[in-house]
């Protein structure tokens, strides 16, 4: 037993050895919360207060769940593989598999991932003859998932639908529910909602699990949404002890439905007597923590804590103020080179930014300097969907016989040119021995009319060819319909920001190459810019084993550790 508790600081020890009661553990960044959670489970098992089948532990990622199981296996001579340790979605899946009949599901029901769900919605809209420009599939997907995460079926959502547009979305939601039920499939949001409904209406089943799971442990409690908290409340019966670990200062997922207020509600509704603050940080030096504390203390409605360390003050935080994003990127390149000369590996260094669009300037500077890098959790700038679409239009201006660019955007944004029409066009091009663009004149009927309109659009873009390059890019983004398309997309703000950044990239390219960007020089400017974009997209992509700089958004960095960190675009 002493081995189990050895090395815990006083607050960690107090949390691990709490008697069976509801508890809220406010665990600051780097304060050892995973250790506390796993040691708490091991302590409950080794002291005989709980059996392996009587513990439910919820984490937010499969990686965290696997780590917890691995640590427990190393701590205890017990087979922990059968324990209910997993993500909300994983545990709900397990519950529904065990009680599929009661849940109204086939035994071998399939789970739709995000891409599958989107395809299913597109198919549904087509079968209902719904205009997917007025009701974009991604927007419908977002609407359905948001309703489910609030615990709302279509019938309940209909009661809150006052305008015609929302009523139509509710109708689509209802049809989507019917389609999924008919096909025996569930999406991620459905897993949780179906499990919640199952326990809500089946009292015998609910009582069974309430009596079984006397100890419920929840990681990252600040990231729970409305339905996840309601599901936990259903499982926490008389005599259960809920051990919630979280940090309201690390609540950054409100845009995904996370409700940080769940922590305050839990404290009030469960009459939590034990609130323990883990404030000793094992990751950072004092200067970093002091700066973080000074900023975080201004957050409103905090439960409050103050991180500290006995690791010393460490290096001071440095602030570099640049005149432009380009100068900032060049300064970072020199700093990275200096760190490399001092023996630091590039994989130890992270470059953080707020939004993905900001990576473009950094990528360009690293590319120019020949420094390998990896974009974590996302695509490099010139590989992003919306950028490749815009570049395809620009390629068609430069060369209308570019079949790859033609195929990419002939029906994006959607303009009623289906796969059958493109097949006919390919046949005509093959017969004539020419390009797809040249073969448009050979087609008649509806397909010929639609394709001729697309050809007219490209000709219209070419007519603006004497504009300076940045203005041409802006003109193409607007005329192509890309801007309107992403403006109407519920999650299109990042893509719009990237398209704006492409215009900046064109302006920077003109400036860096010493070009005047004068009218009449477009063919050379455009060709050079397209070459530049293709090279940056195709080279310096670090492989898995390479020593590469790590680029990512601040959101993507949550839970990761690096020896050196640059926070860019801080203004």
Structural features, described:
With 571 residues, the chain is of the alpha/beta class. It is 52% helix and 9% strand. The protein has 25 helices and twelve strands. It has a six-stranded parallel sheet, sandwiched between helices. A four-stranded parallel sheet has the order 10-11-9-12, with helices on one face. Helix 4 (62-75) links the parallel strand 2 and strand 3 (84-87). Helix 2 crosses helix 3 (33-46), helix 7 packs parallel to helix 10 (188-201) and helix 17 (385-398) crosses helix 18. The protein is globular and about 80 Å long. The chain starts with a helix and ends with a strand.
Strand and helix layout:
Layout: H1 2-5, H2 10-16, E1 23-27, H3 33-46, E2 55-59, H4 62-75, E3 84-87, H5 88-98, E4 110-112, H6 114-127, H7 137-149, H8 154-158, H9 164-183, E5 185-187, H10 188-201, H11 203-212, E6 215-218, H12 226-235, E7 241-246, H13 261-269, E8 274-278, H14 286-296, H15 325-341, E9 349-353, H16 359-369, E10 373-375, H17 385-398, H18 403-409, H19 419-432, H20 436-439, H21 445-462, H22 469-479, H23 482-487, H24 493-512, H25 522-538, E11 549-553, E12 564-567
Helix pairs in contact: 2-3, 3-4, 5-10, 6-7, 6-9, 7-10, 10-12, 15-16, 17-18, 17-21, 17-24, 17-25, 22-24
């Amino acid at each position: 037993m002493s081995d189990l508790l050895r090395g815990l600081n006083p607050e960690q020890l107090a949390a691990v050895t709490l008697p069976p009661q509801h508890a809220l553990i406010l665990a600051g960044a780097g304060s050892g919360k995973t250790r506390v959670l796993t040691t708490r489970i091991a302590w409950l098992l080794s002291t005989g207060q709980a059996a392996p089948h009587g513990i439910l532990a919820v984490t937010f990622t499969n990686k965290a769940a696997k780590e917890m199981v691995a640590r427990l296996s190393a701590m205890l001579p017990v087979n922990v593989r059968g324990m209910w340790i997993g993500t909300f979605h994983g545990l709900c899946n397990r519950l529904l598999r065990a009680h599929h009949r009661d849940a109204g599901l086939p035994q071998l029901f399939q789970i739709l991932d995000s891409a599958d769900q989107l395809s299913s919605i597109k198919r549904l809209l087509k079968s209902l003859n719904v205009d997917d420009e007025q009701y974009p599939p991604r927007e419908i997907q977002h609407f359905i998932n948001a309703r489910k995460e609030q615990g709302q079926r279509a019938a309940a959502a209909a009661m809150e639908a006052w305008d015609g547009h929302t009523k139509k979305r509710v109708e689509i939601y209802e049809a989507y529910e019917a389609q999924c039920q008919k096909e025996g499939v569930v999406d991620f949001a459905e897993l949780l909602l179906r499990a919640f409904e199952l326990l809500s209406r089946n009292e015998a089943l609910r009582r069974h699990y309430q009596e079984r799971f006397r100890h419920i442990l929840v990681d990252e409690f600040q990231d729970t949404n409305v339905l996840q908290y309601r599901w936990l409340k259903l499982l926490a019966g008389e005599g259960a002890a809920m051990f919630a670990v979280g940090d309201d200062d690390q609540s950054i997922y409100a845009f995904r439905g996370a409700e940080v207020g769940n922590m305050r509600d839990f404290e009030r509704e469960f009459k939590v007597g034990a609130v323990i603050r883990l404030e000793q940080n094992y990751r950072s030096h004092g200067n970093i923590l002091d700066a973080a504390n000074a900023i975080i203390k201004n957050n409103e409605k905090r439960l409050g804590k103050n991180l500290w360390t006995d690791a010393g003050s460490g290096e001071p935080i440095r602030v570099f103020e640049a005149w432009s994003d380009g100068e900032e990127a060049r300064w970072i390149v020199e700093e990275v080179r200096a760190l490399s000369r001092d023996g630091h590996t590039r994989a130890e260094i992270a470059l953080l930014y707020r939004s993905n669009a900001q990576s473009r300037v950094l990528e360009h500077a690293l590319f120019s300097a020949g420094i390998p890098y990896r974009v974590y959790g996302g695509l490099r700038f010139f590989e992003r969907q919306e950028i490749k679409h815009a570049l395809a239009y620009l390629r068609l201006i430069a060369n209308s016989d570019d079949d790859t660019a033609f195929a990419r955007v002939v029906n994006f944004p959607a303009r009623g040119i289906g796969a059958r029409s493109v097949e006919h066009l390919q046949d005509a091009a093959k017969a004539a021995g020419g390009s797809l663009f040249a073969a448009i004149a050979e087609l008649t009927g509806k397909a010929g009319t639609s394709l001729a309109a697309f050809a007219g659009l490209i000709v219209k873009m070419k007519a603006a060819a004497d504009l300076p390059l940045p203005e041409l890019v802006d003109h193409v983004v607007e005329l192509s319909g890309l801007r309107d398309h992403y403006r109407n997309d519920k999650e299109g703000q990042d893509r719009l920001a990237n398209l704006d950044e492409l215009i900046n990239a064109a302006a920077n390219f003109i400036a860096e190459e010493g070009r005047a960007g004068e009218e009449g020089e477009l063919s050379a400017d455009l060709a050079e810019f397209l070459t530049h974009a293709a090279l940056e997209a195709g080279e310096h992509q670090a492989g898995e084993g390479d020593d590469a700089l790590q680029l990512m958004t601040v959101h993507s960095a949550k839970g990761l550790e690096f020896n050196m960190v640059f926070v860019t675009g801080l203004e």
